[in-house]
Fold this protein.
Amino acid sequence: MKVLVVEAEEAVLKSAGVMLNKLGYQVGLAPDCDEAFRMYCNQGPYDLVLIALKFVYGSSAGGPNSLMPCFRRIPNKDSLL
């Protein structure tokens, strides 16, 4: 199973990648929605996309204004969590 993790905080992103790899998943790591979209188009599709809540509820890392265009561009929205 391929999992794409979207998280702005580098330490959290790397930790999630290590844990998911140890559990046997193929993991893609993206620090923002733009990179997530590039990875999804070039290396996808992914079975699951995990997106940090800060992208949903807003923060200096992007917020809803950067997240919603990302959602619209990903073809299989059923994989978003």
Summary: The mean pLDDT is 78.
